[in-house]
Amino acid sequence: MKMPVPAVGCESEEELQARVVRGPLPRHVAIIMDGNGRWAAQRNLPRVAGHHEGIKSVREVVTCCRELGLAGLTIYAFSAENWRRPMFEIQELMMLLELYLKRELSTLMERGIRFRTIGRIERLPASVVEWIRRVERETASHQGMTLTLALSYSGRSEIVDAVRRVVSDVQAGSLAPSAIDEDLLEQYLDTHGMEDPDLVIRTSGECRISNFLLWQMAYAELYFTKTLWPDFRRRDLLAAFLDFQQRERRFGRTGEQLQGRAG
Predict the structure, then answer these.
(1) Whole-angstrom distance, CA of residue 24 vs CA of residue 14
(2) What CA–CA distance (Å, rounded) separates 100 from 58?
(3) Res. 208: pLDDT tops 90
(4) Active site residue: 36, 44, 82, 236, which one?
(5) What does pTM read for this prediction?
(6) Is 36 a catalytic residue?
(7) Does the active-site annotation cover 82?
(8) Using CA atoms, how far apart are residues 58 and 93, in angstroms rounded to an integer?
(9) What pLDDT, on the 0 to 100 scale, is given for residue 260?
């Protein structure tokens, strides 16, 4: 029987974290950051102000996940659809991304965090790509946690690109069609080598997945919160983890099987 999650409003972050560490934690969390523009609009600020404030949330969430010992954190930073936004906003986002990489490299190094990206990175400005490759290269040997940024990313495009690579190998004679199964196709995805996310969080009250990790989140728990991304900080993440700990993850089995009873 699923028990209600105790209220978290009156507890300190230390008390929340003490409760969280007593239960099972997700190994890999994926986050759809949403609400930067609305956060800025509510304060009569330009949209870019919301993006700047959102960087603070990124830092706090990365720090919390690393301290709790998670294996992976994947953040939807810029979707393929985001290229449709006004050019000045795209340029500002690219500048923010480059600034983030420059400033956070030393922190990633100190904390043993590996950095990687998924998506059609070649569409990004050359200077941004250069910094992406530098941070990936300098953190490649780290094993503390993997921080993945989804940039110029589309779940559908990722699957299409994977299928194209499979077809190319079949045509080249290096792959037999009979060998194609789920495990093999997964090796052609951008995320090969990564565990699938156990928990997917979306902020701002929207209840959709917006073309994010379509293959990988097949068995993920989904958590939607009305909190706008710039306001989403450590205690919000801990609340999401507490909710996750109340879920019964059956993967096709019955609750009785999980509890060791005949079902």
Answers:
(1) 17
(2) 10
(3) yes
(4) 82
(5) 0.91
(6) no
(7) yes
(8) 14
(9) 66
